[in-house]
Design goal:
There is one protein chain. It is built from 5 helices and 6 strands. It has 149 residues and is α+β, with helices and mostly antiparallel strands. A hairpin with a 3-residue loop joins strand 4 and strand 5. The termini are far apart.
Length: 149
């Protein structure tokens, strides 16, 4: 029996077919993505997801966890399986960054999404209205709130 080769697992991955705007069909299988096209644990509530993340953060001594909208490739449009921020927070707008600490869950987004975010976020989340007076940037917030950590 032949020894396994370094990227054999890619051959076993589920492939996702996508159609481009130009009508081309592509078959995608990326080794760094979990399982393109298949969101995980979709039956959990946003509070259960947030609680689970905080438990993992505590176990690993992580003070803050940043969840951007982009995928691992910084793509503007991401596959359903890469919608981490949306999955965690419940906010489905295309622009936004979530920051989770042991006692706060915050979402920064711009003015295009204030109404949508307010409607989709649960009471466990705080909407940070980006670029509004008195609202710190994510960087300023982290430096101020987590300075002692």
């Amino acid at each position: 029996m032949a020894a396994p080769q370094p990227f054999d697992f890619i051959k076993k991955r589920k492939k996702t077919k996508i159609k481009t705007k130009d009508g081309f069909e592509l078959e995608v299988s990326c080794p760094c993505c979990y399982d393109p096209g298949s969101p995980i644990h979709s039956n959990l509530t946003p509070l259960q997801r947030l609680t689970g993340l905080r438990k993992m953060m505590a176990a690993l001594s992580i003070d803050a966890y940043l969840v951007p909208s982009e995928d691992a490739h910084s793509s503007e449009y991401v596959a359903v399986a890469d919608e981490r921020r949306s999955w965690l927070s419940g906010f489905s707008g295309s622009a936004g960054v979530a920051l989770v600490t042991a006692d706060k869950a915050l979402l920064w987004t711009d003015g295009r999404y204030f109404t949508q975010a307010a409607a989709q976020l649960s009471e466990d989340w705080t909407l940070m209205k980006q670029y509004q007076p008195g609202v710190p940037t994510i960087e300023d917030y982290v430096l101020k709130e987590l300075r002692s950590k």
